[in-house]
Amino acid sequence: MPSTLPEGEPAPTDGALPAEVLAGAADRPLGIYLHVPFCATRCGYCDFNTYTAVELGPGVSQSSYADTAIAELDLAHRVLGDAARPVSTVFVGGGTPTLLPPAELTRMLRAVDERFGLEPGAEVTTESNPESVDAAALQALRAAGFTRISFGMQSAREHVLAVLDRQHTPGRVDRVVRDAQAAGFEHVNVDLIYGTPGESDADWGASLEAAVATGADHVSAYALIVEEGTRLAARIRRGEFDAPDDDVLADRYLMAEETLSGAGFAWYEVSNWARSEAGRSRHNVGYWTGADWWGVGPGAHSHVGGDAVGVRWWNVKHPAAYAERLQAGRSPAHAREILDAATRRTEDIMLRLRLRDGLALAGLRGSAVQTAERARDDGLLEPASYDEGRAVLTVRGRLLADALVRDLVA
Amino acid sequence: MRPLSVPAPPHAFTDPARIRNFCIIAHIDHGKSTLADRMLEFTGLVEGRNMRAQYLDKMDIERERGITIKAQNVRLPWTHDGDDYVLHLIDTPGHVDFSYEVSRSLAACEGAILLVDAAQGIEAQTLANLYLALENDLHIIPVLNKIDLPAAQPEKYAAELAHIIGCDPDTVLRVSAKTGEGVRELLDEVVRTVPHPVGDPDAPPRLLIFDSVYDQYRGVITYVRVFDGRLTTRDRCLMMSTGAAHETLEVGVAAPEPTPTGSIGVGEVGYVIPGVKEVRQARVGDTITSASKPATEMLGGYRHPKPMVYSGLYPIDGSDYPLLRDSLDKLQLNDAALVYEPETSVALGFGFRCGFLGLLHMEIVRERLEREADLALISTAPNVVYRIAMEDGSEMVVTNPADWPEGKISGVYEPIVDAMVLLPSDYVGSVMELCQQRRGTLKGMEYLSQDRVELKYVLPLAEIIFDFFDQLKSRTRGYASLDYEPAGEQEADLVKVDILLQGETVDAFSAIVHRDKAYAYGTAMTSKLRELIPRQQFEVPIQAAIGSRVIARENIRAIRKDVLAKCYGGDITRKRKLLEKQKEGKRRMKMVGRVEVPQEAFIAALQTTPKTD
To answer: Domain boundary residue among A288, A304, A328?
Structure first.
């Protein structure tokens, strides 16, 4: 989650939602995102809304964070009212969630369960850095009800990890994945980053092989994005590193597709591969398919609504301001936007086109129909899926997904 | 000898024997306006404290550039040997683009002051205008100005002037318009030596329009010289070139502000307001007569202004198109030489194809549009007018590369000019080389003095309108001056070079060039566009072609990655907003076939038109 908040209209101080967005809520899955805005150190490429102890300043402590987050869960339950329902997915992200003791994460998860209830078979994920967990912690998390864990592996090469300022050693990931599986986690993800300055094709190939070898059943592979204001951006500006080259990134993506599909993974979103349908992140799929989700924590985004109308809002960014709002009994929402039907159609194109399940061609209007047909002829959409009424990207199409989205909404 | 203290408007017609009509021929910066200011002051017309520098130059652009675009005139009372005289100073425009206007101003005079900077000597334009004045049988008074300057070399330049006009160097007057030294003597010399006007006071009136300007409140004001008869506000005036009669709203003299007199008689210079809205209805060079007592013959020398240079003018913001149209309409009220018609360009959208007298005229029009209407404009590379003979015997005139014919061409004819370059002899080699590159033919070379040379060339006009002047200035460290006049046409090996994006012609970059320069233009343009046009989802060839023959080619490689890796819950709003912004940007994209080009890329390519040298 990039740290810059979008512009929006003022959000009500009591957090109230427009009545019409709650219509039909029972038919939509509900997810809870819990943001943990703490890291031990800040990585050079990261512009997420997270804080080291030094950056945080006085007045906010990691130890009181769970209580503050639970206060927002109370607010969520109150605001949703009749639309409050058992949640399908919980995702604890950061930051570094496992910087909090397992007991604190457990307390937050239990708070969700107590207020909303967890659906049978609910997916409960936490992110983790390989260096911030051990076997005991993993066992504790699994016992508390976490079902899925996601490790920030990034690379199998030490010099690449060094450029990214990652603290773990390459072998550490193997170890924690094994520990997680031993603790009973059925689904394990490893995150990879490609295109880091200094990374060669061979380095990337090795990272992919290593990721496969961990035994994780899910891999997310992201092209390095140099965000303004990060230390990495400054180092590139100073000429210490070259900015990632798009053609190189394209080659690395193709390597990822080749290695992962060769190892039995299948893509289900542009940057996500899973060994089985069950291994997909259902929580993330919810973001892309119009589910309701409540994002708890500073800077977290939430979304409630159906095809006709929806609302999305985002919380104040700084943990201190966030805590202050909740302590005063007010909503921590910073701003919101109302999503009308046309906007939702745009978002649908933008999000669903990235998925293996694709976008229904029947939903396209006007010149977008011809645009899709041309995209198929140009080799950006799978012809077979097209004939079945769905726009599904080819591997070349995945690399040009944003361009095609622009064409489709133009 | 003393100036009249009160410039009373004449109630009776002035005896032509007491009238002197004269102009000042000078180069930019040689002090013409300062001299005119001093004359106004010494004749008591404008008091020193009301003087603003360069009183007669009225347009902002003129004052800023120190050039005169529109001729002005002023009536100066002067007493010589106890007799009162009326001197009419007619200020002439100072640029080659307006040589026709110059010729009409000269035609209104009997004499001319040839004013030359005593530190610089005569310049090409001045020399050209001097030749025009001699053709009009004007009496020439040679004058050196700025004799107060430490760098002045009056002896040297007096000799140069004497050599050019064939007089005794001692008769060259020496003045300082700045200090006023010698200006009174100069006015006396005008009275003594310039012939007084001669005309038939009882004949039907014939008034030469030597300038015509549009005034927001009064309509068109014509500045006139009466050759025969008289015109009063009781007469309806008749434009002899069109045969249209108009009410005579006002007649007067410039003293120097317009002063109504009710009538104007033979030999006099003044103004007539004929109650028309556009200067095209009262053109420079036309003859005004009386509708009730019309003359039978026009005064000689009338010519319809003919555009020499064409260019497309486009608003950078497409929504400014109506404003551009209105502004051109308004400008045309005051500019009889400006022509334009709507034009559409793939690259630039809606605009106008405009015809101009020359490059300066083009620049002035563009600058006035930008300044007075606050428009941001882009112009295509200027081109001249071509005559094309086809093998089937037909002929056509091409003012726009887009109109270049498809069929078999038997001959292409381009306008040529007689060009005159005055320069220090040190730079002769370098300037000859430039003229050679520009397909010039040397016609003569003459030493005006030991170190000053006059070069005569025949040059294609197309070569001159393409940064020739800048090149000339840079090769001579600013010391060369240039003048030229149309000299007919010549057959030339000219071709149209098209620039194609993925096989589609980009109209704004088509150019008519000499075959020997086609390759240079083609490679320069294709490589420039390759840098400026963003990569697309497919490979885009950029070609330069003559007809179907490709002479240069570049490729824009296809973009391979255009996707952001992450799009999670917190990214959606930001990403959609970016998408909406890009959608707006996409609307402003120009489509050439399937290639999307930001208009800025076209603009950048046009603004730095490649040199073909």
So the answer is: A288
Query: Which tens digits make up the pLDDT trace of B415-470?
Result: 999 999 989 999 999 999 999 999 999 999 999 888 889 999 999 999 998 788 88
Give the residue from A99, A123, A107 showing the smallest Cα distance to A29.
A123
Tokens of B135: 């053709």
**In chain A, which residues have their Cβ closer than 8 Å to the Cβ of B562?**
246, 399-403
Does residue A172 belong to any structural domain of this protein? yes
Report how many Cβ contacts below 8 Å link chain A to chain B.
106
Gap from A136 CA to chain B (nearest CA, Å): 30
Q: Which of B562, B563, B569 sits opposite A287 (nearest CB)?
A: B569
Phi-psi region of B331 (alpha: psi -120 to 50; beta: other; left: phi over 0): alpha
What is the CB neighbour count within 10 angstroms for residue A345?
Answer: 17
Q: Do A301 and B567 touch (CB under 8 A)?
A: no
CATH number, domain of A69, equals: 3.80.30.20
When mean pLDDT is compared across A43-47, A311-315, A370-374, B388-392, the lowest value belongs to: A43-47
Same domain (yes/no): A270, A150: yes
Q: What is the pLDDT of residue B14?
A: 86
The amino acid occupying position B83 is D
CB contact under 8 A, A378 and B537: yes
DSSP-assigned letter for residue B407: S
d(CA A18, CA A7): 19
CA distance B245 to chain A (A): 58
> Looking at the domain assignment, is residue A350 inside a domain?
yes
Structure ipTM: 0.94
Three-class HEC string of B496-563? EEEEEECCEECHHHCEEEEHHHHHHHHHHHHHHHHHHCCCCCCCEEEEEEECCEEEEEEEECCCCCCC
Q: Which of A221, A254, A288 is the last residue of a domain?
A: A288
Residues A346 and A277 in one domain: no
State the Cα torsion A262-A263-A268-A274 to the nearest 10°: 180
Record: contact A351-B567, CB cut-off 8 A: yes
Same domain, A275 and A351: no
* Residues A82 and A195 occupy one common structural domain: yes
pTM, 2 dp? 0.72
Closest CA of chain A from B605, distance in Å: 25
pLDDT confidence bin for A313, thresholds 50/70/90: very high
Residue B141: partners with Cβ closer than 8 Å, 6 or more residues away: B22, B111, B112, B113, B114, B173, B186, B189, B190, B193, B194
Mean pLDDT for the stretch of residues A86-101: 94
Please, what is the angle between helix B124-135 and helix B99-107, to 10°?
Answer: 40
Q: Is A284 in the same domain as A345?
A: no
Residue A215 lies in a domain: yes
pLDDT confidence of A22, banded at 50, 70, 90?
A: very high
Which runs of consecutive H residues, i.e. helices, occur in B309-349?
321-333
Query: In terms of pLDDT, which residue wins out, A43 or A208?
Result: A208
**Is residue A308 a part of any domain in this protein?**
no
What is the distance between the alpha carbons of residues B577 and B579, in angstroms, rounded to a whole number? 5
Range of the domain at A353: 341-410
Q: Residue B58 burial (CB < 10 Å; 0-12/13-18/19+)?
A: middle
3-state DSSP assignment of residue B238 = strand
Predicted local distance difference test score (pLDDT) of residue A270: 98
Q: Which chain B residues touch A if contact means CB-CB below 8 Å?
A: 537-538, 559-577, 579-580, 582-583, 586-587
- Phi, psi for B423 (deg, rounded to 5): -160, 160
Q: What is the pLDDT of residue B199?
A: 94
Report CA-CA distances (Å) from A310 to A291, A337, B572. Answer: 11, 8, 13
Number of structural domains found in chain A: 2
Flag if A350 and B567 touch (Cβ within 8 Å). Answer: yes
Query: Which residues does chain B have with pLDDT short of 50?
Result: 1-11, 49, 66-67, 69, 71, 610-613
